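Memo subject: From amino acid sequence to discrete backbone structure tokens
Keywords: amino acid chain, backbone geometry, structure tokens, three-dimensional fold.
Body of memo: The sequence and its backbone structure tokens, given next.
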Amino acid sequence: MGAFASQRESADLKPMQMTFAKRWQAPQPAFMLCKRIVLVWLGCTLSLGLPMRVVGSEDAASVPPAPAPPADPRGVTVERARTSIYIGIVTLTLPPLIRDGLSFRGAYTTKVFPYFFYNEHGDLSIDFSEDAFARLAAGETVPFTGSAKNTKGEPRRIEGRAVPSNAQQGKIKVRVFVTPKIELIFNTTYHFQ
């Protein structure tokens, strides 16, 4: 009976024992197949001594430095911005603003959905000193002010702040005071030209 039991145990083990080649050819879930491929590649790499890329100081040296700030930026591009109002949306669109002395000047257009009769366009000016450029290049948040006037001659006060991500670009928050009590807040990005 002991010999019969050992034959039975070996018979039970034979169906479970598969060669590596048969296991590799058996249908498997995609994750298991990917896992096996990675393990085989890693084993070959380690056993053959192939060089593996290590992220570190070599990669840091190959990354190009951030572009230097323009010595005298000619203009700034501000991306289109949107803000919500009571049951509506206001979209502010600015073409590239051109530098004129210590300010950036250009046109603006606002579209109010669904209140299209509040749409307006006009001219604006943002004050920005040489000191502000140096502070932006140093990575500091810089506040600014400005003014706008629509085609009907109605004034708009502007306040905001620029938060640089590098010397050329960053985020900008603009507050437009439509009246002394009503303000619209736009969050967008800028890029010097």
